[in-house]
Amino acid sequence: MNILNVSGLVKRYGGLTATDHFDLSVAPGEIHAIIGPNGAGKSTLIGQISGELRPDEGRLVFEERDITALPIGRRARLGLARSYQITSVLHEFTALENVMVAVNAQAGKRFGCWQPMAAAHAIAGPALALLEQVGLGERAHVPVAEMAHGEHRQLELAMALASSPRLLLLDEPMAGMSQAESAQMTALLRTLKGRCAIVLVEHDMDAVFALADRITVLVYGRAIACGTPAAIRADAAVRSAYLGEDEAVLDAEGAHA
Ligand SMILES: Nc1ncnc2c1ncn2[C@@H]1O[C@H](COP(=O)(O)OP(=O)(O)OP(=O)(O)O)[C@@H](O)[C@H]1O
């Protein structure tokens, strides 16, 4: 059974079809990367899976439940989470405090405002464990404003993991990272492999080819290929789609992994 099935998805912006009869299946625990040239419709697609955007046509089924009409919060509660953007993080607060807010959002039903101390104790432990998991255990008490860009992305991941998602949507987690930070994030995402399924939109081909079980290639809103990294790298239609942009990305070092 797939954890996610997307069928016949269409999203139009006026005369532009940004998602064009798109199908996707994601197996439990799979890392499924979505790649494609600039403007191919990757963010539009992630937005529709997370619930930020409503499709014009098509159907989204998560764990056999039709979620097409469900708002973002309901999807998140079902176990489908999108990584937070650091812009929604409280910069003057520490990493730990931010993750505590995310953990508290999950524990909201269990801890009422009439027992704030009990709630704080109960959420600090899980929040610290999440920070340790993403490699920020030593940085727990550092204000977010003082952290490096790569650490912000690690923090976003810890906050997304607070809901124990079974499907995590990551939109360009390596964006703006140095090569070293990107390699660190790749190693971190590898530790999540099998624990939850991941739909990964990413331009960093080293990361994509090192992590993905399957890759779907999007061009003008349509999936032109879907397969293992080796199959995608050898696919003639994929190579020609990247011609003129940066075909060399398909031959990146990590693409041989
Ligand atoms: N709100 C919008 N209104 C109109 N057109 C839009 C809107 N959002 C995106 N588009 C257009 O839809 C197409 C797909 O955009 P999208 O951002 O989803 O692509 P992308 O693959 O994520 O691009 P990139 O790799 O550059 O981030 C583009 O042509 C874009 O200009």
From TrEMBL:
Transmembrane stretches, start-end: none
Q: Name one GO cellular component term.
A: plasma membrane
Q: What is this protein called?
A: Amino acid/amide ABC transporter ATP-binding protein 1, HAAT family
One Pfam family of this chain: ABC_tran
Q: Where is the signal peptide?
A: none
- UniProt domain ABC transporter: residue ranges: 4-245
Q: Which GO terms describe its molecular function?
A: ATP binding; ATP hydrolysis activity
UniProt keyword Membrane, yes or no: yes
Q: Which UniProt keywords apply?
A: ATP-binding, Cell inner membrane, Cell membrane, Membrane, Nucleotide-binding, Transport
For the keyword rRNA processing, the answer is no
